[in-house]
């Protein structure tokens, strides 16, 4: 009974990986390990599904330490990752230090800097895939934000390939709801080793999250049908020509 | 000042017609005239934009009288339509009478029966376009309903052509918000001649309408960005192979 919730996550990650061919033989996968619950559960799951996937692949985690978050749980995170067969690297990036004079810190800047570091590291070390910990609720949220703010139907793809770039982006948690991740993290003792951003959530995203929750009535069935619609429109698998943006 | 609100509707209908080529030289357009505010305002607008469109086209309205609605305002509707240069025909259809034994009346059945009659009438009399009075809010509503109930991204197109069928469907009010139609109907004295369905609105649609209003905060800007997104994804102009469904 205890492991039931973790099993759900493992099954949904397996489903995403198998159906969308997220992992191929010999893949070298770089996990973007923020230290938060999502990416930690993702690392746990990508490790735990090895028997089901029946492919040889390498898992390495890159943590980016910023100049505004002295994450005290980093050594605990490293211990867990190594226990799961995932190597751990920590890189320090002066996120605030890189701000141009007069600019203030914001989510967009931070994620841009982190993404740049991830891509650079992956390219230099020969990783061919970057795994990001975005889940079903993140994808739906982005879909609604892009629709209402940008006037376009687009989402965060679960598989994103580039025609002329050797690194693909995968989101193995794309079929998993956030509450399923939290339940799994609790069950696996992951919440204890994870941290959250001291800046908190982008207020715009928080407002959208609330409005989506109201709209869907937080119904898992409704959210899955929205994801299904987004998927049927081809928005969860993309192939782009150019190299990744920030 | 008085005609300002009517002008907005006329401008948005002109924009839809011009940008999407809804009306072509020599078109014979059959207006689905339910007797409600939307289709009546549409008839008024399609007539009023003649000088801007600079094309020759015929406008005829078909009203379908059912066996459950004795619309007392029909003669007033006919008077207004004729005043606008739109011919009027009334056809009686036993919507309830056609129900199979044991079936109860519902919106889907009624609209199916009406649509069938419209298409039959258009084909028999050589009309090449059918104009339906759906507005921006209807389109967004259908988009959200299809997304959350069917799991697909689709909407009601503003222009729908068939490869092997001589009748196209147009929705000239597609860029107009419902509240703009109401304001125009008030200004033009149309509300007095329009009626509403005695069965009232489908409860599912009413619930969705409420949730969408909460989600968009009834912001015209947000609703227009959603429409823009739906349009950019190609969902407002369609060409289908098969003949129209019910």
Describe this structure in words.
- The structure is a homodimer of 246-residue chains.
- A 7-stranded mixed sheet of chain A has the order 3-2-1-4-6-5-7, with helices on both faces.
- The longest helix of chain A has 19 residues, at 107-125.
- In chain A, 46% of the residues lie in helices and 14% in strands.
- In chain A, 40% of the residues are buried.
- In chain A, helix 1 crosses helix 7 (178-187).
- The first copy, chain A, has a single domain, classed as HUPs (Rossmann fold, 3-Layer(aba) Sandwich), CATH 3.40.50.620.
- Chain A has 246 residues and is α/β, with parallel strands linked by helices.
- Chain A contains 9 helices and 7 strands, in the order H-E-H-H-E-H-E-H-E-H-E-E-H-H-H-E.
- Chains A and B meet through helix 6, helix 8 and helix 9 of A and helix 6, helix 8 and helix 9 of B.
Layout: helices, strands, pairs:
2 copies of one chain form a homodimer.
Chain A: H1 4-20, E1 28-32, H2 37-48, H3 50-53, E2 58-66, H4 74-83, E3 87-93, H5 107-125, E4 129-131, H6 136-150, E5 159-162, E6 168-170, H7 178-187, H8 203-216, H9 220-232, E7 237-240
Parallel strand pairs in A: 1-2, 1-4, 2-3, 4-6, 5-7
Antiparallel strand pairs in A: 5-6
Helix pairs in contact in A: 1-2, 1-7, 2-7, 6-8, 6-9
How would you classify the helix and strand content of chain A by structural class? alpha/beta
Strand fraction of chain A equals: 5-15%
- Note the overall shape of chain A: globular
Unreliable stretches of chain A, pLDDT < 50, 5 or more residues? Answer: none
What is the CATH topology assignment of chain A?
Answer: Rossmann fold
End-to-end Cα distance of chain A: 43 Å
Largest sheet of chain A: 7 strands, mixed
- On the 0-100 scale, what is the average pLDDT of chain A? 91
The quaternary structure here is homodimer
Bin the helical content of chain A: 40-55%
**Count of DSSP helices of chain A?**
9
DSSP, total strands of chain A: 7
**Name of the top-level CATH class of chain A:** Alpha Beta
